[in-house]
Amino acid sequence: MTALDLDFVRSQFPAFASPVLSSHAFFENAGGSYPCAQVVERLHRFYTDRKVQPYAPYPGAQAGGAEMDEARTRLAALMGVAREEVSFGPSTSANTYVLAQAVRKWLSGTGQAIVVTDQDHEANSGVWRRLAEEGVEVREWRLDPQTGSLDPADLAALLADGKVRLVCFPNCSNVVAEINDVAAITAMARAAGAHTVVDGVSYAPHGFPDIPALGCDVYLFSAYKTYGPHQGIMVIRQEFGMMLPGQAHYFNNATLYKRFTPAGPDHAQIAACAGMADYIDALAARHGIGGDAAARNRGVHDLMRAQEVAVIAPLLDYLAARNDIRLIGPRDAAHRAPTVAVDLGRAAEPVSEELGRRGIACWAGDFYAVRPLTAMGVDLEKGVLRMSAVHYTGADDVARLIAALDEVL
């Protein structure tokens, strides 16, 4: 495979030329990635040339509406789904909340069950657990407290009686970072008569999903973590989406991408999301990856992952060799996202502050992963130190991080 051209990649991100941002090696990507230039340019253009009500019969409105449509169409093509199956919302937490209200109406009073995990960010856990208020049985797929892993055999036991109608789980956790076998889990759920909701927020920055290959009914992620603007993106497959009660204006119920968007769309942010597709296409062209949009996306995904695995491995080696900390999640870079959380056995935030003074941008806390950290025995008052990379992270960044850790740990 062709190696990722890191110089080209970094040239696509204004942050690397910023006097403020470029002073630090950036390891807070799990909290939000840098936006690519294509997104910044589209957002600026919308606010300067198209900031009117879109779709009206005059040039600026027509151009704005066309760019919003372009974003949906091109992202759908990258992910291998119909354009109607891509919904935008203010955040993934908001999108998941609205979806849960639809499921609440769907399952209320039926005596049926859902499965949630304790490996999730709270956005894909709390809203589902509250369905118990409507008499929906909530079953918990529990992680291994030592490794943080989810065992499919435990899920099989939860599905065995045929009462489960929905399984909600992460593509990977934002602290454990192990990449779950989404295709295998969704196949297991489907065989038991259950639909699936996948929280992809912590995985999508490492490559946009190939939805047909994953087989899920819903996949949620955040554009501001995939080099874009602050939007939540929800892919919801046609059959499942039209089966659920709509949550928006009744006269929009016939349009799938409007059914679960009760708030008015953020025109500029949606239009700017087309810049993410521009970026994927730019990477594909630079590295000689051809084919249709889905094929280009798969090729770029593989490039990103290869870069991330190679770059983050030395950090994992370094942390695993220390006996004064606990590395959360898998030791093998190939089986995890490059989001690395460590339990220091002491308050983690002062350590992140010390790293900041040494040119490393990262943070500490619970990262809304209260349930998995609690299940793994982490003291929430102390939290974890989290260092998260993406494909634009270089080997020199990691070397700089390791040197700083040597000074502060």
Automatic annotation (TrEMBL):
Species, as recorded: Fuscovulum ytuae
Aminotransferase class V domain mapped to chain residues: 26-401
Protein name per UniProt: Aminotransferase class V-fold PLP-dependent enzyme
Record GO terms (molecular function): transaminase activity
Pfam families: Aminotran_5
UniProt keyword Transferase, yes or no: yes
PANTHER family to which the protein is assigned, alphabetical: CYSTEINE DESULFURASE, PYRIDOXAL PHOSPHATE (PLP)-DEPENDENT ASPARTATE AMINOTRANSFERASE SUPERFAMILY
Assigned keywords, A-Z: Aminotransferase, Pyridoxal phosphate, Transferase
Recorded superkingdom: Bacteria
InterPro entries on file: Aminotrans_V_dom, PyrdxlP-dep_Trfase, PyrdxlP-dep_Trfase_major, PyrdxlP-dep_Trfase_small
